């Protein structure tokens, strides 16, 4: 079948027509948002003339009916509510002019039944404007404290608390506004779906940008409708939009009626400015050691020009960032036990040294400090530091309960609070928090996304701030952190150049490529390898801040001069070349393997060493091994596990020494022995003084050769050891069954001698460890069986009544009903039965309970795995019980 050559042209035309329709609908929405004057009324005499002479029924004309319908409609819908000042029902404070305009815009959206996006910059009072809208809905057609007449409730807590709240508060309906989190909405979606909601306010709405997420399915009905428009996404495709300024302007027309965006610089003139200073710190001696260790572990990556694994590069970046923050983030780095909190917490991290100098100065100036970090374990270290320095502090991270979270914020913001430091994780503490009582923000480390750091700064730089907010960003010099911050600054600069001009940015530019990650890792590696000494100086904090302000100004000046092409490629140089294609310089890429070789640090030689041994180790070349010492040609083959009498080995050794004497054998020197010459001399003396066996000793040797377990070979011995591991050393009956070709009496006899003389075996430590591991598994099975019996014995009908406490280990693939069946059936069949898992699988397939549960019935691979690895299944059962 031949393709229609005009198909693509028709599709483009059809797409353009649908786009024109969307623009017309947008204009219609914009028209209704503005107050309409309505149609002119018809005069009375004109209306009389419109009536025909014979119209005794006084029928309305089309124009009369239109006028009446328009009048009725105007009474209901064309009343446009507009506030000129802060509404009287807002008791908490007065709305600013731009907030009043935002409230009017929200009201116009509501009255016309249109959704919208309030996209004001952080700290401009989006929450207050939204609460004021809800207050308008309450009075004319924040909640407590902002609009006291609004009855607001908050749904949050554990499972029991939520159940009580739903039963006692939510379902009775004695409330106007329900405030909750995204997580609570997902957990209680069945309850929320019972209400006919009048208005939905979504804070941090990026959480619903994925239309396939559970949150979007619960809270939004417009997303599925949006997806019904065929090829909607293709209109906004970057490749189609870039370079087509007219199309971009028309796309903005689509969004303009539904989006309101103001920034602080335009509307909030009374807010003091924000000043950021980048403070560059050095690495401590311990940090340099760990940084070098991380790079050396993956030196092949640093010096490779071949295919790179992105996940491996990301892991290296994460480890290097941890090292820049504090070496104690690595297990084994902190000295101890005992673990102490003293000056070593500061001196082993360059950032902590600067922080220890900066905080006293800020406290003396009367400032209050917010410290943000990406890593909660860094907050643990900072918490220990604050306790050691007697700084009163609050802490907030992703694990902080809601009640403690709000209590900490209130304690920090209350008038006259003695809290000096507030430590927050950047992701958890950067959203929805007002900490305007602080005037200093310290970014202990930086995020990949510069918007996240801006949100963190705006916790203090927002309405209500009366001081200039100072932001100190810590950056470890000559490390990967420098490149991370440079990249973030370039992203912000690119945003100001492109996005604010009304153009679109290629989203692929925000993705971190493998080559870029490799360049970040390589940055500063040679500098770190060059020395092992600390770079931390005793420089005064004022000089550190002055130097940081100077470097910050230099970077800002460099960024301001950069062109858009350099920003798109995330490169500091502005030159272009014919070798540049799709953001890559292929000329430099070819040279990478040769010009960017990173030389690892030199090995330190110890003061005392043997030259031969050193070069043998360095070159991985060993000396030729000396030939084995000769043995008599007809000596019996005896093994240690056959447990011959010790006297036999003495006679055999004597026979060997005399044989070596007769052939003139000379003992070679073993260079690996500490006293090689003395050992050689003693061994040679034994040979020189050796005597042959006499007749009595020869007869004794033949007799002793019959007193060992000569009919036990290596295979029999291995079966005996594995049987002891499987059944335990005391279960001799089952052990005897496992050893093939041996009677129970033979096994009993061998077992008695084995446990009496097992220390004579060469690998006794390995053998005993193997047996003891098996016995430990046996004891564990016994304890699990007892616990299983106790657990099942508590219920009359365990198949229906058994309750399982999962903790945090509840899986997603199996239900509690299925787990209950497995445990109860396992108890019924016998936990310690050998083929219990095969029988359990058959019971599942025969049970009518799982007749249509094809997922569970088809888990043959899982059952065989459990059968092969019984240990893992036992551990799971033990946890469940």
TrEMBL record:
GO MF entry, a single one: DNA binding
Where mainly located? Answer: nucleus
The cellular location(s) given in this protein's UniProt record come to: Nucleus
Q: Name one GO cellular component term.
A: ISWI-type complex
Give the InterPro entries listed for this entry. Answer: Helicase_ATP-bd, Helicase_C-like, Homeodomain-like_sf, ISWI_HAND-dom, ISWI_HAND-dom_sf, P-loop_NTPase, SANT/Myb, SANT_dom
Which keywords annotate this record? Answer: Chromatin regulator, Hydrolase, Nucleus, Phosphoprotein, Repeat
Q: Which CDD domains match?
A: SANT (cd00167), SF2_C_SNF (cd18793)
Belongs to which family? Belongs to the SNF2/RAD54 helicase family. ISWI subfamily.
Supply the PANTHER family for this chain.
Answer: CHROMODOMAIN-HELICASE-DNA-BINDING PROTEIN 3-RELATED-RELATED, SWI_SNF RELATED, MATRIX ASSOCIATED, ACTIN DEPENDENT REGULATOR OF CHROMATIN, SUBFAMILY A, MEMBER 5
Which protein is depicted? Uncharacterized protein
UniProt gene name: SMARCA5
């Amino acid at each position: 079948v031949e393709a229609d050559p005009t198909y693509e042209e028709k599709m483009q035309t059809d797409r353009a027509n649908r786009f024109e329709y969307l623009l017309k609908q947008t204009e219609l929405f914009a028209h209704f948002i503005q107050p309409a004057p309505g149609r002119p009324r018809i005069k009375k005499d004109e209306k009389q003339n419109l009536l025909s002479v014979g119209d005794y029924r006084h029928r309305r004309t089309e124009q009369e009916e239109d006028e009446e319908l328009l009048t009725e409609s105007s009474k209901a819908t064309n009343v446009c509510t507009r506030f000129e000042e802060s509404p009287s029902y807002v008791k908490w404070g007065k709305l600013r002019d731009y907030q009043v305009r935002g409230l009017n815009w929200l009201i116009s959206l509501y009255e016309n039944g249109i959704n919208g996006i309030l996209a004001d910059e952080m700290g401009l009072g989006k929450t207050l404007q939204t609460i004021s809208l809800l207050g308008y809905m309450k009075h004319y057609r924040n909640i407590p404290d902002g609009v006291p007449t609004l009855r607001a409730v908050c749904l949050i807590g554990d499972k029991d608390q939520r159940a009580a709240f739903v039963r006692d508060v939510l379902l009775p309906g004695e409330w106007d506004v329900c405030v909750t989190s995204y997580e609570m909405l997902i957990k209680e979606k069945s309850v929320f779906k019972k209400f006919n909601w009048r208005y939905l306010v979504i804070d941090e709405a990026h959480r619903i940008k994925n239309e396939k997420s559970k949150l979007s399915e619960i809270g939004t009905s417009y997303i599925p409708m949006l997806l019904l428009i065929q090829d909607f996404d293709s209109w906004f495709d970057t490749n189609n939009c870039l370079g087509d300024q007219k199309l971009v302007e028309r796309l903005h027309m689509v969004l303009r009626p539904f989006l309101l965006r103001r920034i602080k610089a335009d509307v909030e003139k009374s807010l003091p400015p924000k000043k950021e200073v980048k403070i560059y710190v050095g690495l401590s001696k311990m940090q340099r050691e760990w940084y070098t260790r991380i790079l050396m572990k993956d030196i092949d990556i640093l010096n490779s020009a071949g295919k790179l694994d992105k996940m491996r590069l990301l892991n290296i970046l994460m480890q290097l960032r941890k090292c820049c923050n504090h070496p104690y983030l690595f297990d084994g780095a902190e000295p101890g036990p005992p673990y102490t909190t003293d000056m070593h917490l500061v001196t082993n991290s360059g950032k902590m040294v600067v922080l220890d100098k900066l905080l006293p100065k800020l406290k003396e100036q009367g400032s209050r400090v917010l410290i943000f970090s990406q890593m909660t374990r860094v907050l643990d270290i900072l918490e220990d530091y604050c306790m050691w320095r007697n700084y009163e502090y609050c802490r907030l991270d992703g694990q902080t309960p809601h009640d403690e979270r709000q209590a900490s914020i209130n304690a920090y913001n209350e008038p006259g609070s003695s809290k000096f430091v507030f430590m927050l994780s950047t992701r958890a503490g950067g959203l929805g928090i007002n900490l305007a009582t602080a005037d200093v923000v310290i970014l202990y480390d930086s995020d990949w996304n510069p918007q996240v750091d801006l949100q963190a700064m705006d916790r203090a730089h927002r309405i209500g701030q009366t001081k200039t907010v100072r932001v100190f960003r810590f950056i470890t010099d000559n490390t990967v952190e420098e490149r991370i911050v440079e990249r973030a600054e370039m992203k912000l600069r690119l945003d100001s150049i492109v996005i604010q001009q009304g153009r679109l940015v290629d989203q692929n530019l925000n993705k971190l490529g493998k080559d870029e990650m490799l360049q970040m890792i390589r940055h500063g590696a040679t500098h770190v390898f060059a020395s092992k000494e600390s770079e931390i100086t005793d420089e005064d904090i004022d000089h550190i801040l002055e130097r940081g302000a100077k470097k910050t100004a230099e970077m800002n000046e460099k960024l301001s001069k950069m062109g858009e092409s350099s920003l798109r490629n995330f490169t500091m140089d502005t030159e272009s070349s014919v070798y540049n294609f799709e953001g890559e310089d292929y000329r430099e890429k070819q040279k990478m393997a040769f010009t960017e070789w990173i030389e690892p640090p030199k090995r330190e030689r110890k003061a005392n060493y043997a030259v031969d041994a050193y070069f043998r180790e360095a070159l991985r070349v060993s000396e030729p091994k000396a030939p084995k010492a000769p043995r008599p040609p007809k000596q019996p083959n005896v093994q240690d596990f056959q447990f011959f009498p010790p006297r036999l080995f003495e006679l055999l050794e004597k026979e060997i020494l005399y044989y070596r004497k007769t052939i003139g054998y000379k003992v070679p020197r073993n260079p690996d022995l500490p006293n090689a010459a003395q050992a050689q001399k003693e061994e040679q003396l034994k040979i020189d003084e050796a005597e042959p066996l006499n007749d009595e000793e020869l007869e004794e040797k033949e007799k002793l050769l019959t007193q060992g377990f000569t009919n036990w070979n290596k295979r029999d011995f291995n079966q005996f050891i594995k049987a002891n591991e499987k059944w335990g050393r005391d279960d001799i009956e089952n052990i005897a069954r496992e050893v093939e070709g041996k009677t129970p009496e033979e096994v009993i006899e061998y077992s008695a001698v084995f446990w009496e003389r097992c220390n004579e075996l060469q690998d006794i430590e390995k053998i005993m460890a193997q047996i003891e591991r098996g016995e430990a598994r046996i004891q564990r099975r016994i304890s699990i069986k007892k616990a299983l019996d106790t657990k099942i014995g508590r219920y009359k009908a365990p198949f229906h009544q058994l309750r399982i406490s999962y903790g945090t280990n509840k899986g997603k693939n199996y239900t509690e009903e299925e787990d209950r069946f497995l445990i109860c059936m396992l108890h019924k069949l016998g936990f310690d039965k050998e083929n219990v898992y095969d029988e359990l699988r058959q019971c599942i397939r025969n049970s009518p309970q799982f007749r249509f549960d094809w997922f569970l019935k088809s888990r043959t691979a899982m059952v065989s795995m459990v059968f092969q690895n019984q240990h893992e299944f036992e551990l799971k059962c033990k946890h469940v019980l």
